[in-house]
Amino acid sequence: MNGLGEMMSAAVVWRWQTAGAGAGVGAETGAAGARLAALRHCLAALQLPHAGLHAAHAYLHLLACTPEEIITSIRERGPQFSELEYLNALKVIGARRGVSAADMRAHLARLAAALGHAGHVGVTV
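Structure tokens predicted for Exocyst complex component 4-like (125 residues):
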């Protein structure tokens, strides 16, 4: 996905971080769904090659997964996205699900191992 995926993942992270401050969990879940629907609509309006739309669609599905499902998928099928795209997805999922900093560090360590890195993935929580 290269540039498109990184742009999408950065935009999604930014939207989740800037929207809904102080909103309840139910409100945030509804707002998150609305933002994903808006992003899907925008992607559908773009004139991208079929492969680009397929990759964008796959990334949106990634955002609905749990960190464990993402890591298991990488181990079973290999990475389908860049390290940055996985990091951004984990940030969004962690924020949406209220994952603690300690749990997020554990997920990042497992992500690093699944991606074949000896150390941790280069993000602080």
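The radius of gyration is 14 Å.
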